[in-house]
Design the sequence.
């Protein structure tokens, strides 16, 4: 299995099939566009920095963009509605949290989650191996909120996303603001792409896997 980061909230999860989350066009954000083919694309909401399915190549790509419970391309997917802001979605609307199962691993992409998760949502998501969580504030939860969500869900691995870094044209917080409130011993820098097996996941606690462009 492998995970590759294509910037912002776009990840490529590859195994028996390839799943891509929240593709962007690159140019609108000031970063390179994703260079990827996929069997399945998951789009958390219809904002320009998350919904560019045309950027993902594939002869027969399936696209999911709403709450659903289904098996698509052999991948079990559950989409759950959540708020894009702390005012019950009145400011920015709703997003879809996608939890999916691939080759014996469970993944959950929180999209532009804008508020803490309630207990029923935590129960639906858990247990999960990989939790992709926004940390940049302004349009999503910030560092403190992200840490609270991670502590509630308790994934084996948390992957921060949706933060400011070189070239990204969004006025959001940098990754460091999140990392400085995390246990340094649990932070693992994996580069742009990582291959992993079950043995690479922690037996207890949560590791923070930091991807780089």
Sequence:
């Amino acid at each position: 299995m492998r995970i590759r980061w294509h910037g912002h909230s776009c990840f490529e999860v590859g195994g028996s099939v390839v799943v891509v989350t929240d593709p962007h066009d690159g140019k609108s954000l000031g970063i390179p566009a994703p260079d990827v083919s996929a069997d399945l694309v998951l789009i958390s909401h219809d904002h320009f920095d998350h919904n560019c399915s045309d950027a993902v190549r594939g002869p027969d790509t399936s696209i999911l963009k709403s709450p659903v419970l289904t098996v698509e391309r052999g991948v079990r997917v559950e989409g759950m509605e959540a708020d894009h802001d702390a005012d019950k979605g009145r400011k920015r609307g709703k997003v879809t949290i996608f939890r999916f199962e691939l080759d014996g691993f469970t993944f959950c992409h929180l999209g532009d989650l804008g508020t803490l998760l309630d207990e029923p949502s935590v129960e639906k998501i858990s247990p999960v191996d990989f939790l992709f969580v926004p940390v940049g504030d302004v349009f999503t939860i910030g560092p403190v909120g992200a840490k609270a969500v991670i502590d509630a869900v308790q994934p084996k691995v948390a992957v921060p996303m949706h933060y400011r870094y070189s070239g990204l044209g969004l006025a959001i917080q940098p990754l460091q603001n999140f990392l400085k409130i995390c246990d340094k011993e649990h932070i693992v820098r994996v580069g742009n792409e990582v291959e992993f097996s079950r043995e690479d996941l922690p037996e207890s606690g949560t590791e923070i896997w930091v991807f780089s462009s």
